From TrEMBL:
GO BP terms: glutathione metabolic process
Protein known as: Glutathione S-transferase
All residue ranges annotated as the GST C-terminal domain in the record: 88-222
Membrane-spanning segments: none
Amino acid sequence: MLTLFHHPLYASCRFVRLAFGEYGEELVLIEERPWARREEFLALNPAGTIPVLLAEGDQPVVGATVISEYLDETRGALKREKRLMAEDPIQRAEIRRLIDWYLVKADADVTRHLVRERALKPHMAGAEGGGSPDSAAIRAARANVRQHMKYTNWLAGTRDWLAGKRLSYADLAAAGALSVLDYLGEVEWHDFPAARDWYSRMKSRPSFRPILADRVRGLTPVSHYADLDF
């Protein structure tokens, strides 16, 4: 069985878990605190970042997009209409663009800061960057949430799925990011009906059940987090 080093509030890790779940692949999950820089973990990935997949032969595959490409090449090519990556090069480019949007841009604008300030700092030592939450960083991130939700609402309102006519890695990347914000209660879903309908469809998928079961020590999710009819 494959092993994934992850953290439950990292959007990139949730993206990978959803992708394997869509393909019916089970993962052994090891929660990793990358800020602790464990020697054993650094031996797998000297960069100290997550997610890291221990693939066949315990070979480390590092990074969410690299893992998704590995998954597509080793499993996805056999899935035909259930493949999470398109066959057409232009459609593939759009899927990759949206993966980057949600796992890089949205992370830099919003997700990373809210997770760090609200969820991680209380459990980090001072030498690791712990301490009191930075209210300015939280305000700046919250100011960016609506712009990303507006864009998601537009995508969901004009397409069957975010990148086109089929479920793809783009939907999983967006769901990974927005599920973290939803856990924290940072999304005003009633303002974005198309995004809400799309997210409700995502939450109803079997691959999403482990995500909805996630709990982080010291931080209870918003009351509707696991509710499929929210």
